[in-house]
Amino acid sequence: MKSLEEFRRNGYENKWTWGRKRIKGTALTCEIICEVTMDKFYAEFIVLDKTTIIYKKDILTDKPSWISNSYFLKNKFLIRDDKILLADNLGKITFEEKISKLKKLI
After folding, report:
1. Residue 27 pLDDT greater than 70, yes or no
2. d(C-alpha 44, C-alpha 30), whole Å
3. pTM
């Protein structure tokens, strides 16, 4: 009940950084930002050059549900070779972005 009151006080919005990875040898940081409102669960991939956002991409927009939200939150956020990846529990890649592409944005 206490958490519901806090959710209500925050305008029925909860936003947090779910994952953060630095790209070695650069000033780039990749983040996955999640947000839950009464109407949606939203996940967005952003890339920052120091503190400036240089790239954004939607990963998921869905109705808020404990099932879909918890399924997404079990993903693994990885850097392999030239790729930033999200993989589910079975190893299936659910999101992919090339680091070389992001470096060109600097």
Report:
1. yes
2. 10
3. 0.80
